[in-house]
């Protein structure tokens, strides 16, 4: 799930916000350019083709970094992470001839902002193999504050003791609040805090794949939150 | 949801959201470490003015599985014996810093009163003959796991002492909202005085309806009622309303049998049925923890009270 700073009303799992409900409900349609919250599209970060290429590159990087695909488990974070993990596994299978196990992880019960804002589980935690001694590659759509990843590491270590945990994300939008970085990044995207990176995956959203940068209408200057360079692969 | 006092306060969507939440909790309970830190730092107190083992332990287990601290206050060991009022007890406990109070009381409406006095979230764990909402929810959850997402069209008979049963009152409201058709079965003396507006059918003969039922929900025979001329002898009750092996064999092949406990093997339900393939009784107990986790999470975890 995309993250937001504690207290920000722009959290991806903040179901009670009318605008969020609207986006979940589908009033946000890629291509519309403007939504009912007064947000407008600033940029298309990834087209479907761009996204496919980025996924393939990340899949190669994961295998390269780990000297093969043996002993890797891909674990996606709800929402959209499980689909990304599935895609990375499919890509790896296409060139490496290894079926990498794929799991899904929900981090709601491990978040550090429980009680500060509405938090709900977004899907079941299902990891088909024992992660003890394995290299777990967490997969998520957007890396923002790092708080979701912190929660994910807590959730994961209660399920077993991985040999290592790595992180793959489609977009790193900066604004980290914790000492966390991604190992594999589709794109480093400078953003403003008030902006919103919106990811749509066809398996999850029923639309074409697309990643877009949206922001409040009326101002358009860019970027104070450039991701640090070492966040890249 | 600020408090869970009555099923009447919930609509179908809210009930289904709680049951969906319970699925996540059941997932947690199935892990090697069946515990999450979701309510770390929160305190849940059980305030029990009436004896209960399973409900109190179920709530306390639920709270602990979510990482909350628990405290227990029961009648036997409390200052109530010294004459303290419910109001003063509730306020005293709240002053210690609790986030949720799980209240059981022999007087209908007591949890509602407590909810009006304290800021903590209040869960009704059974008040007199009125309601026992978490029991109805855990039964719905158990049925849903066997029948799929809704209870639409399910024919459920509640058999026994409906008049004195808070389980029946909550169950009727909950299962009806989820689409079930509820029939009350028992002798006229154990039926509610008035049924105006209740979304139920009534039968005084279990054998009349038995073969149409999807679920037989057996209530405890409250033996203290025996002396009140409300019940015939136990032997006669068993003959007419007991879930015997013979009756079990006449039920639909996939019909299910449930009981809220504590049960009395014999007069209400034959041992072979309790331990047989139709019985969901053990599952009900296990699911009670998951459902109560979902309720506590909704009240003091998920931020529902912030809205």
Give a structural overview.
The complex is a heterodimer of chains A (233) and B (307). Chain A has a domain at 47-113 and 121-191: Rossmann fold (3-Layer(aba) Sandwich). In chain A, 24% of the residues lie in helices and 23% in strands. Chain A has helices spanning 18-25, 48-65, 81-96, 147-157, 202-205, and strands spanning 39-46, 72-77, 102-105, 135-143, 164-172, 184-188, 196-200, 210-216. In chain A, helix 3 (81-96) links the parallel strand 2 (72-77) and strand 3. The model of chain A is unreliable at 2-28 and 228-233 (pLDDT under 50). Chain B has 307 residues and is an alpha/beta fold. Chain B has eleven helices and nine strands. In chain B, the strands form two sheets. Chain B has a five-stranded parallel beta sheet. Chain B has a four-stranded parallel beta sheet with strand order 2-1-3-4, with helices on both faces. Classes of the chains: A alpha/beta (233), B alpha/beta (307). The interface between A and B is medium-sized, with 19 and 21 residues.
Brief sketch in words of this structure:
Chain A is α/β, with parallel strands linked by helices. Chain A has helices at residues 18-25, 48-65, 81-96, 147-157, 202-205, and strands spanning 39-46, 72-77, 102-105, 135-143, 164-172, 184-188, 196-200, 210-216. In chain A, helix 4 links the parallel strand 4 (135-143) and strand 5 (164-172).
Write the layout of secondary structure elements.
The complex is a heterodimer of chains A (233) and B (307).
Chain A: H1 18-25, E1 39-46, H2 48-65, E2 72-77, H3 81-96, E3 102-105, E4 135-143, H4 147-157, E5 164-172, E6 184-188, E7 196-200, H5 202-205, E8 210-216
Helix pairs in contact in A: 2-3
Chain B: H1 12-29, E1 43-48, H2 54-65, E2 69-74, H3 86-95, E3 100-105, H4 110-117, E4 121-127, H5 133-147, E5 155-159, H6 166-177, E6 181-185, E7 200-203, H7 206-209, E8 215-218, H8 234-241, H9 245-250, E9 256-258, H10 271-274, H11 281-300
Parallel strand pairs in B: 1-2, 1-3, 3-4, 5-6, 5-8, 6-7, 8-9
Helix pairs in contact in B: 1-5, 1-11, 2-11, 3-4, 5-6, 5-11
């Amino acid at each position: 799930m995309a993250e937001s700073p504690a207290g920000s009303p722009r959290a991806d799992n903040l179901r009670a916000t009318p605008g969020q409900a609207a986006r979940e409900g589908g009033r946000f349609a890629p291509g519309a350019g403007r939504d009912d919250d007064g947000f407008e599209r600033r940029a298309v970060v990834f087209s479907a083709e761009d996204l496919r290429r980025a996924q393939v590159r990340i899949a190669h990087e994961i295998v390269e970094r780990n000297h093969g695909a043996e002993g890797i488990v891909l674990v996606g974070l709800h929402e959209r992470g499980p689909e990304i993990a599935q895609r990375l596994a499919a890509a790896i299978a296409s060139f490496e001839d290894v079926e990498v196990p794929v799991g899904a992880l929900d981090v709601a019960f491990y978040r550090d902002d429980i009680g500060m804002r509405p938090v709900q589980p977004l899907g079941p935690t299902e990891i088909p193999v024992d992660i003890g001694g394995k290299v777990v590659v967490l997969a998520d759509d957007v890396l923002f504050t790092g708080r979701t990843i912190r929660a994910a590491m807590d959730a994961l270590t209660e399920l077993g003791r991985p040999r290592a945990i790595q992180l793959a994300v489609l977009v790193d939008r900066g604004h980290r609040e914790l000492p966390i970085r991604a190992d594999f990044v589709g794109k480093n995207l400078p953003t403003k805090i008030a902006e919103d990176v919106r990811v749509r995956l066809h398996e999850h959203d029923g639309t074409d794949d697309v990643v877009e940068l949206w922001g409040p209408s009326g101002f358009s200057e860019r970027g104070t939150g450039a991701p640090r360079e070492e966040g890249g692969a | 949801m600020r408090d869970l006092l009555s099923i009447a306060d919930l609509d179908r969507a809210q009930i289904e959201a709680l049951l969906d939440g319970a699925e996540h909790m059941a997932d947690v309970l199935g892990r090697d470490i069946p515990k999450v830190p979701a309510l770390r730092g929160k305190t849940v107190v059980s305030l029990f003015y009436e004896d209960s083992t399973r409900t109190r332990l179920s709530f306390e287990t639920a709270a602990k599985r979510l990482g909350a601290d628990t405290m227990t206050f029961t009648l036997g060991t409390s200052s109530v014996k010294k004459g303290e009022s419910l109001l003063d007890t509730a306020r005293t406990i709240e002053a210690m810093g609790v986030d949720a109070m799980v209240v059981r009381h022999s007087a209908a409406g007591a949890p509602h009163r407590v909810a009006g006095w304290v800021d903590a979230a209040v869960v009704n764990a059974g008040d007199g003959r009125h309601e026992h909402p978490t029991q109805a929810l855990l039964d719905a959850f158990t049925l849903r796991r066997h029948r799929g997402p809704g209870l639409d069209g399910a024919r459920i008979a509640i058999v026994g002492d409906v008049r004195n049963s808070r389980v029946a009152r909550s169950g009727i409201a909950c299962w009806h909202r989820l689409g079930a058709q509820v029939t009350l079965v028992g002798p006229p003396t154990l039926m509610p005085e008035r049924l105006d507006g209740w979304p139920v059918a009534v039968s005084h003969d279990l054998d009349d309806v038995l073969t149409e039922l999807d679920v037989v929900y057996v209530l405890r025979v409250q033996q203290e009622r025996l002396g009140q001329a409300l019940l015939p002898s136990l032997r006669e009750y068993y003959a007419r309303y007991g879930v015997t092996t013979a009756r079990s064999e006449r039920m639909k092949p996939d019909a299910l049998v449930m009981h809220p406990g504590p049960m009395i093997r014999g007069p209400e339900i034959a041992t072979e049925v309790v331990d047989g393939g139709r019985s969901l009784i053990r599952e009900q107990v296990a699911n009670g923890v998951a459902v109560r986790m979902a309720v506590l999470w909704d009240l003091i975890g998920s931020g529902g009270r912030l809205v």
